[in-house]
Design goal:
By secondary structure, this protein is of the alpha+beta class. It has three domains: 203 residues; 103 residues, no CATH class; 151 residues, no CATH class. 55% of the residues lie in helices and 12% in strands. It is built from 16 helices and twelve strands. The strands form three sheets. It has a seven-stranded mixed β-sheet. Strands 4-3-5 form a three-stranded antiparallel β-sheet. A two-stranded antiparallel sheet has the order 1-2. Strand 11 and strand 12 form a beta hairpin. The longest helix has 47 residues. The protein is globular. The protein binds zinc ion. Zinc ion (ZN) binds next to loops.
Amino acid sequence: MPDNDKKKNKKELKKDIQDNTDLTDEYMEKINESFYNMLKNPTNKEIEKHRLERDALISLWLGFLFEDFKNQLYASAQMGINEADRQLSKKGITKKVNDITKETYEGQVQARLNSDIEDIILTSQNIKINSENFIKELKTNPINYEFDKYKKISSELSADLIKRGITYYKDRANRQWNISKYIEMKTLTEKMGAQRLSFFTRAIQYGVDLVRIVHLNINPTCELCAPFEDKILSITGNTKGYLSLQDAQMYGLFHPRCDHVPEQLELAPTDKGNDGKIELNEANKKRKEYNEKRKEYDITTDKRINNISSPKNYKEYKKFGSFYNRGNELAQIIIKEKERNDDAVKYARKLFDENTLRAYYNIGELPEEAVNLLNSETNELKFSIDNLLKNIINHKDLDVNDYKKIFEIIKNPSKTRKSKKQNSKDVILFSNKNKQYYMLVVKTTANKKENFIKSFRKMGEEEYNGY
Ligand SMILES: [Zn+2]
């Protein structure tokens, strides 16, 4: 379909939806409608039409949604600042003790927004995937389909489809979630998070570290929250005798779908008594175990508070499996969208933000020979999501088991060489174990304080011997 037609189609759709109140719901309804229309008469022409409508609707929806999301997050952050200011001035706390700028607050909202956008883009991909899966199912039957056969597929589909359409996604536990509901919940959670984060950051700015979790009178209280009711926490974890906010969150404070939202927080509480003493229950302990398992996917409020003084602190993955899965997940999105490799890498940098791409895994220690050749000040070797993604896109013949061999290669390379490329300071570690040849290219940063994997690939025996 020519680009002009696409533009025209998009414009009409946009006009069509503009008057609606609940945007996400309306978009999802339109996407499902387009799918059902195609299902009634699944000729190639109708399938193409559906694809076009579907993709245009998804991109329009995301455009609207991100704008809306951004405004809501900024408004919530401002509410957090206002509430902190109100409390601080009431208590006569007026002296700023930490140098926290407007950029810090904006950076916090932006970081949150970036990770939300990435999450939502990933989720939105499911609409396409669902639709394409059903199309594939339809197409495995001859296009002059036998009526009975088609009817059967169609009724099987409709039984469970009519209710939810194609606008759902499955989580890691294979549970289905409605995308409208997901967006609704995510918006609420993220707004609360943005509000709290700026509230606590404001407190730090004025040198206030203690906060009382007041909790409105709700009966019965949730099990996870009960131990924190009227208790006092340390925002930074720097006040002795008080549980840190970060630990409290690990134990379930501010958990999703809490009945205590919105909760009440009191800065610089007086009458502290024994309120720093918190008795955790079984639910709290279980929640902590659970949160620890998924920690790598979450950036908690406090980590960002702790990052205030060093904004260039990128996320470190603790498990290679999670690191690889994340990189691969992002790479697959790019591969689907872009056929050519050089385009793909540029596209990834446009689609994913700096914090996502610069997250890394600590692979281990380089042998002395490699460190000397690199002229680096450290033997630590990191692998960033950015380079993993690039490598997955450029070397599709590798799988996770190949990548796991990197651990052996840095422990015991068959040989180590400086790159022969002109002006290159890269160093290459090789492996020839069981006649399977690999080359691992590593580099050091300009300040020589960090080493990164640049690329990793298989090679033939001849090429190996040539180095
Ligand atoms: Zn709760």
